[in-house]
Design a protein that fits this description.
The protein is mainly β. Among the domains are: 2-25 and 593-658, Complement Module, domain 1; 305-356, Seminal Fluid Protein  PDC-109 (Domain B); 361-415, Fibronectin, type II, collagen-binding (Seminal Fluid Protein  PDC-109 (Domain B)), CATH 2.10.10; 428-474, Complement Module, domain 1; 486-534, Complement Module, domain 1 (Ribbon), CATH 2.10.70; 536-588, Complement Module, domain 1. It is 4% helix and 27% strand. The chain contains two helices and 57 strands. It has a four-stranded antiparallel β-sheet, with no helix packed on it. A four-stranded antiparallel β-sheet has the order 37-38-40-41, with no helix packed on it. The protein has a four-stranded antiparallel β-sheet with strand order 44-46-48-49, with no helix packed on it.
Length: 664
């Protein structure tokens, strides 16, 4: 009997030792700094500043509100640096950066998370504890290549015990930027990051690194700061201290509302960082870009397109850059073509095999021996998608015959063709039409009543053909359909103009939710969505917990309640749950604490480590560890057995035996 007891205690002690060993040998995570005076040294957590211990980066003492840390355990020596930042979009934090680690659902989150997000989007808190409810979406950087099937980067991610807050070249022999698609690269999931290649400067065409620090400011896209010529530029390392930089390519826009301003890459749209022109959000499928780093201001324009012929993409335009065999192509290429013809992919990754031939404009004169133009080509820090007169004193059209005019290879283009009368459009007409139009001249349209223009109302003559011809879109609506779980208040009309509203009431047991919008609106011949959502009954009861606010018999969809566990009971799950269309979120659980009484201590010949409270009754919360000591004249086979854990109200106390009673 004694042997079995000793054997059991030995096995239990060995497992406890193994667990403690595994935990204690885990390498600390390194957070590298930028700026400051510590030359990029890593943060030291916790560090002492202003009589407070800081377990994460802090804004304390910073007038500009930027996150920083000390690089030694005590800030007395004054060594510090800025912490890398992940700026948020959306949410309610006005673009404030994430704070790592942050507390959510009783778990410390060391990177952006999807926890609690039904749409699966990555988010973070912008303070160290989510109790204040301040949060935002994390930027979404889509990957190509690798083994993650285009999954987005997760920032920060850990690789080699270093936290990376942006794409990195570490461990890449070819120097390409990559990221992990989970918070820890232990699972080996990764992909290449999209790149913005530079021209000019002193970085030999190296790609931008975002974010980069210049003058204690984090830049998440190309910038004009510090450049008298107002040209867009970026650093090619994470800190501009080394002075490595280059100009960013400028893609001139047409149409839109930005007056021909160039694209800014990357730009944020729909919580995704866009590194090239995109079709997202465009019903007509045309390529566009924002002309500022964040589309919040709504400034945008159409991107020039290179239409393909042949191939298998049905004449779809090229998408630049596109990935082929782990190489980013920023213009049409001959790679992999035995006949030497120029081609491009029509999606951002050639994995899907969609491609077409690029139009070939043969040159004359110049110094390229009649070679064809390569579109787009870089000249004067601007990407040219067609022949240009820039830099030509005689005003003749010319092009480069390689993707970058650095090598000086060029030729004259065939002279432009004039455009005839603009195309007729249904339910609209041309304003002030002329018989002929020159290259880059525009013609304007207007629509009949109950129609509106799909674009800015202009079409442009480009090399003899009209581009971006608008359409007239019908804006009136037919009578609305019946409202699910609701009823329209008024008698329906035969036709509704754009902007008209129709009000409705929800059936008993249904409401419009917290938004309280009880109408639908006619917009471009369609009705906006109605929403009669089912109410929830009273929230579920949680054992050992109370709801902190007044209880109601019924709750609107979108409303929430908060639970609070009794003293010493530990809450697992979300303390606040929400009613969503008649169903409450998963309710939390209050884990039972453990009670250790004096009689149990004496029966097991143990006591607390505190001399003055040796045999005092104690309470331990769920999952908490406590360590005991053997009473005088008593001993235990393995001292590790004296440390035990409370698990949902059960704590297995160790037993000490009289000295000399152990036998193996």
């Amino acid at each position: 009997m004694l042997f079995h007891r000793c054997l059991g205690m030995f096995i239990h002690g060995f497992l406890a030792f193994l667990t403690i060993s595994l935990i204690s040998t885990a390498a600390p995570v390194t957070v590298l700094t930028t700026g400051g005076n510590a030359d990029g040294a890593p943060c030291v957590f916790p560090f002492m500043y202003g009589n407070n211990q800081h377990y994460s980066c802090t804004r304390d003492g910073q007038n500009d509100g930027k996150l920083w840390c000390a690089t030694t355990s005590d800030y007395k020596d004054g060594k510090w640096g800025f912490c890398p930042e992940v700026l948020t979009t959306g949410g309610n934090a006005d673009g404030a950066p994430c704070v790592f680690p942050f507390m959510y659902g009783n778990i410390q989150q060391y990177s952006c998370t999807r926890d609690g997000q039904k749409d699966g989007k990555l988010w973070c808190a912008t303070t160290s504890d989510y109790k204040d409810g301040k949060w935002g979406f994390c930027p979404k950087v889509q990957t190509t290549g690798g083994n993650a099937d285009g999954a987005p980067c997760v920032f920060p991610f850990i690789n080699g015990n270093i936290q990376h807050y942006s794409c990195t070249r570490d461990g890449q022999n070819d120097g390409k930027l990559w990221c992990a698609t989970t918070s820890d690269y232990k699972d080996g999931k990764w992909g290449f990051c999209p790149e913005v290649l530079t021209t000019g400067g002193n970085a030999d065409g190296a790609p931008c690194v975002f974010p980069f620090v210049n003058g204690n400011i984090h830049h998440y896209s190309c910038t004009r700061d510090g450049h008298n010529d107002s040209k867009l530029w970026c650093a090619t390392t994470s800190n501009y201290k080394d002075g490595k930089w280059g100009f960013c390519p400028e893609v001139q826009t047409t149409g839109g509302n930005a007056d021909g301003a160039p694209c800014v890459f990357p730009f944020m749209y729909g919580n995704i960082q866009q590194y090239s022109c995109t079709r997202d959000g465009q019903k007509d499928g045309k390529l566009w870009c924002a002309t500022t780093s964040d589309y919040k201001d709504g400034k945008w324009g159409f991107c020039p397109e290179v239409q393909t012929t042949g191939g298998n993409a049905d004449g779809a335009p090229c998408v630049f850059p596109f990935m082929n065999r782990n190489i980013h192509h920023y213009s049409c290429t001959r790679d992999g073509q035995n006949d030497g013809k120029l081609w491009c992919a029509t999606t951002s990754d050639y994995k899907d095999g969609k491609w077409g031939f690029c139009p070939e404009v043969l040159t004359t004169g110049g110094n390229a021996d009649g070679a064809p133009c390569v579109f787009p080509f870089m000249y004067g820090n601007i990407q040219r998608y067609s022949c240009t007169r820039d830099g030509q004193k005689d005003g003749k059209l010319w092009c480069a015959t390689t993707s970058d005019y650095k090598d000086g290879k060029w030729g004259f283009c065939p002279e432009e063709k004039l455009c005839g009368k603009p195309e007729e459009i249904a339910n609209g007409r041309v304003l002030e039409g002329k018989p002929e139009y020159k290259h880059n001249e525009k013609a304007s349209y207007e629509c009949s009543a109950e129609y509106r223009l799909s674009e800015d109302g202009n079409t442009t003559c480009l090399l003899g053909r009209w581009e971006n011809v608008p359409k007239c879109i019908y804006t009136s609506c037919e009578p609305p359909a019946d409202i699910p779980h609701g009823e329209i208040r008024e008698q329906k009309k035969n036709k509704y103009s754009s902007g008209d509203r129709v009000f409705y009431d929800c059936d008993p047991g249904y409401t419009t939710g917290l938004d309280n919008i009880d109408y639908i609106t006619c917009e471009d011949a369609r009705w906006t969505e109605s929403a009669c959502r089912m109410n929830c009954d009273a929230p579920p009861t949680v054992t050992y917990a109370e709801i902190t606010e007044r209880l109601n018999e019924s709750y609107r969809s979108g409303s929430s309640v908060q639970y609070k566990c009794a003293h010493f009971y530990k809450l697992e799950g979300r303390e606040r749950i929400t009613c969503i269309n008649g169903v409450w979120d998963k309710t939390p659980v209050c884990r039972v604490p453990c009670t250790v009484k004096e009689v149990a201590l004496r029966q097991n010949n143990i006591h607390h480590t505190s001399e003055e409270n040796k045999y005092k009754k104690i309470y331990k919360v769920h999952a908490e560890y406590t360590t005991f000591q053997c009473a005088p004249e008593y001993e235990i086979l393995d001292s590790k057995l004296l440390t035990v854990q409370c698990l949902d109200g059960v704590i297995n106390l160790p037993t000490c035996l009289k000295k000399g009673e152990f036998s193996l």
